[in-house]
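Researcher: Batch entry, complex prediction.
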Amino acid sequence: QKEVEQDPGPLSVPEGAIVSLNCTYSNSAFQYFMWYRQYSRKGPELLMYTYSSGNKEDGRFTAQVDKSSKYISLFIRDSQPSDSATYLCAMSGGGGSEKLVFGKGTKLTVNP
Amino acid sequence: GAVVSQHPSWVICKSGTSVKIECRSLDFQATTMFWYRQFPKQSLMLMATSNEGSKATYEQGVEKDKFLINHASLTLSTLTVTSAHPEDSSFYICSATTPGLYGYTFGSGTRLTVV
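Model: Structure tokens for the complex:
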């Protein structure tokens, strides 16, 4: 079993749809959870950063962490064509300099 | 916000030559930098972790003599691909972090093509 599992998709939705992306993990030591967006041929861009369990909202984006189920989610409301990208979940056990463990990424296309 | 600059964004080199990629943290002091390699349609593969002033820690299977990493200052880390071969062609990305910084900031990546 891989440390982090993420459905690679691809996922295709119409503009305005609510998008749900998720990852599961096996390492109970993970405490820091991140979602990155990566456009083709670019570096990943940090979207959401969450510590431990709970919800965090930032504009159209909501991140949820359920440590009891080892499950994290990213919701995108009112999706736009500009949201078309690959979304990567990432997590680590400690803050500071611990290396991140990434999911494989989910490729999302939002159709106008 | 935290900004990491990576140069060059793309480079073509001849087989057998060496290529240096720079990663700079522009508005914070990066105590730790990471170097990744990414193949098309795949996730990031961590190559090594470097702490300022210390030797880099390489992941299993990464040739340390081929991929030289230097983190001589709190704002600069370099990756040198020595004696490059076509199989080294890939997308290389750095990231940086420091205590108190939320998340890890990534550079824009370098596309290396070895011909």
